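Field reference: sequence -> structure
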Amino acid sequence: MSRQTRIRLFSLLVLLGVLAGVLATPAEQSNAYAAPCCSSCEYQYDSCTSGGGIYPSCNADPACCEKIVTQNCWRWCIYSC
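Structure field:
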């Protein structure tokens, strides 16, 4: 194997290593959101059950409010705020 062939193979190996490193790097998360405090979930629930707030589709139904606030807030909230 000639010296020039070894240099080309080494260059190809380095290129493949860099490419593998780039592809293995996790993608940047462009939709990162801060988790709310759980106290705000309580407020959302109370507001929903009183007939107002950001969930008017529940029409103050406690079961509906519980479900929607759990999905949108309690599931992701931080207790230690």
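Note: Residues 3-24 form the longest helix (22 residues).
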